[in-house]
Amino acid sequence: MTDWPILSTVTFLPLLGAAFILLIRGNEATVARNSRHVALWTTVATFAISLLLIAGFDTTTAEFQFEEFTPWLPEFGIGYHLGIDGISVFFLLLTTFLVPICIISCWQAVQTRVREYMIAFLVLETFMVGVFCSLDLMMFYIFFEGQLIPMFLIIGIWGGARRVYSAYKFFLYTLVGSVLFLLAILFMYFQTGTTDIPALMSHVWTPAMQTWLWLALFASFAVKLPMWPFHTWLPDAHVEAPTAGSVILAGILLKMGGYGFLRFSLPMFPDASEFFMPFIFALSVVAVIYTSLVALMQQDMKKLIAYSSVAHMGIVTIGLFTFTGQGIEGGIFQMLSHGVLSAALFLIVGVIYDRMHSREIAAYGGLVHRMPVYAFVFMVIMLASIGLPATSGFVGEFLIFVGVFQVNTWVAMLGLTGVILGAAYMLWLYRRVIFGELTKENLKSIKDLNMREIGFFAPLVVLALFMGIYPKPFLDVLHVSVENLIAQTEMARMGGAEVVADLVPDALAKVLR
Amino acid sequence: MAEFTAPDYLTALPEIFLAAISLIFLMIGVFAGNRSTKLLTWLCVAAMSAAFIMVLAGSHSYSTTFFGMFVSDSFSIFMKCLVLIGAAVTLIMGMGFVKRENMNRFEFPVLILFATLGMLLMISANDLIALYVGLELQSLSLYIVAAFRRESLRSSEAGLKYFVLGALSSGLLLYGCSMVYGFTGFTGFDEIAAAIGHGGGDTHSATAIGILIGLVFITAALAFKVSAVPFHMWTPDVYEGAPTPVTAFFAAAPKIAAMALLLRVLLGPFHELLVQWDQIIVFISIASMALGAFAAIGQSNIKRLIAYSSIGHIGYALVGLAAGTPEGVRGVLIYLAIYMVMSLGTFACILAMRRRGQMVEKIEDLAGLSKSNPPVALALAIFMFSMAGIPPMAGFFGKLYVFLAAIEEGMYGLAIIGVLTSAVGAYYYIRIVKVMYFDKPVESFDKPIGMELSSVLVGTGVVTLFFFAYPTPVLEGAQAAAALLFP
Lengths: 513, 487
Description:
The complex is a heterodimer of chains A (513) and B (487). Chain A is mainly alpha-helical and 513 residues long. Chain A has 21 helices and 2 strands. Chain A has a two-stranded antiparallel ribbon with strand order 1-2. In chain B, the strands form 2 sheets. Chain B has a two-stranded antiparallel ribbon with strand order 1-2. Chain B has a two-stranded antiparallel sheet with strand order 3-4.
């Protein structure tokens, strides 16, 4: 291990880039060109440095690695504490991987206020990376909440027609969820005197406290994930956000909900998590089936993909709450895979939107005749999203359902119905957009992918296939940490002698009194 | 008969200095006329800075003088520093406005100096009479500056409204003071505390009930001064009507001084009655947070909006007082310090809202500011996100510390209501961001905004944005100050 603080570098390098962009002088065109380049090179450098993390990652231990610690608010026991384990390392990499792709994808699509756009993206990257490597709850919260600001601006300034409404909805929904999370943090701090995550993980909470804390955290993560019925902000935000904004939203921000469940809810409040398992299963199953049906009827491509995200995240939560190794590993893998695939899907929509300025499915048809490369990329990603074997989607879903079958056959069966519906809406979408006769006049001159577009699709397609064909490197890294998570959960459950179910009415009664 | 011993003047040096020098300034003004306004303003700022240094250089240990009527301790030092900074910064920001808007009269800076002196006396008051004298010196000066633009109907109306309602609250305060004096026989805070302590836990004797009634009157009067619900009615009208630099001053300094007074009175002489006054504080805290959040939504004038937002902020600060612990008071102090910086910055932005020489105050006037004047828009966005309590801005930390205290005391209901109203409040704060960043630009504001305003904007903006990086001075100052109120 070196002394060089890699995690701090990865976290704050984008911020440095943003500061640099702020200093660029010149006329509008110069500023725009230079901002794009600075943003691209900063994010590429960040990605390159973050690769060092995986290169130096020790897969044999579940300990936090690359740890950094500096006292920050010493009188409160709040420190600047960074570190990653097998669970967070891939989320971090996914973030640093997707941001440069976003920057390239909006090279031409964004023509107004380029400087501000790039700054917003770089600040957002800092916050996102920070969320995944914070080992202090307070820092986690600051990063988690701080990203509302750049995302709000990205949707609101560069978004579509109903951007203001969507930006508000996004901001306020997420805020209401997270303020309760803040109270939970304060309560945990008050009980233990620290906000250090490793220290909190070893604390055993009484079942009654677990229930309330779990619910407070759930309010935040369920909105972020989003779980049915808290998902209604998502289709609006996705539809109105610019392409790169949707990519980040679907690719990374949604994963923070799942990451939150993994990092906090499961290991810290295992009794409550177990108690609420049926509740989570119920919401997830409804999400999978209901949103898939809704997706089937969408006229707007982005909306369809947004609903499909909710359905996929439903499958993820089913996996996470099985408490089995396969389920949790599958859940994480599915999140990573969905990060890549949903990003790719939004980019696919973005490509034709940039050309035709329409997201209506009905406005397209027969694109295969003019855009064969595009049709190929779309096909691979679409099949991966359905979960065809040898694609990344398959591995995640397979593992999840192996896990679920051990716990509850009904949930597995209903969840799988959603997967079938998923195949239905994706294939139908593909058929309507790509196949058929090329009858629409304005489509007759549409151009296939250019080199820049192929450039950013290639890594996504390769990754989607690689993760499906050879998932071992990913699962190896995950394995020890997930085992450790399950062991922690078991141990904590032994510690809490009483069953939550008996205590919940008591706790409720106490509050009502 | 005891020998007369001269009081220790050194303890009250900043106040004595300010009192003397403000009289000198008044003379300069009288003889030199209105052309000396600019000079006097700078002189007043210099005098405040000198007083600031004297406050900081003075003894940080607890000491009283003037026969126990005047107290100086780390609490008063912290609060005085805030008040002096707030007053000096508002004077600097207001200079351009005063010159342009026909307010160029030498009385203005001198009156502000008098008001500041009154606030310092309030903060150091250790006796009901000293309290009243300080409060009145402050209030009388403020009534005049609120109505400083005699030719403007709105300004006169604001001044009159403020005067009538302020006089009412002074009456309440006096009435409460006389009740307390009548039932305890003392006006000194220490003696009152001792007298209440002697009564033991008995809350049903006639004396105890008499004191309690006095306490309620005093609390109501002070709630009026900090504009907490239900004594807030004057705030929106006065904020809107008063000249903008005066409003900025109202939002920064007097609130802090009145809050200091409230803390000192409730936690000093009436500490024993915590259970009684706590109910009042919890109620006005919740009511202020809720009203601040909901009433601001419909506002179209930015000064009115900030008035409602200040009511809400006082509600959050009172959450810390409701906790009634050193942590709670520390939270209040941190909150006030951060609130002062944010509100000064916000008013600096409002002062920059000028179009072809005319001040504009509608929120729609900000449309597209991010294009026409990016630095001001960025600064205002920072202040708005900070007021909404979004990390990593300073406002988040203010809320954090008061809610932490509430959670520690098990006041979950208060904390939950607090965070939910802050989410509601976020709606109107981000509306301003939306207008500036998402809407089509209208005509640009006058540029440049002036050196004074720019430096205030940069200073307050940097503090608000980077508070998280080095919060130690504020935290430690607040910690020391809060510990003192809990012997």
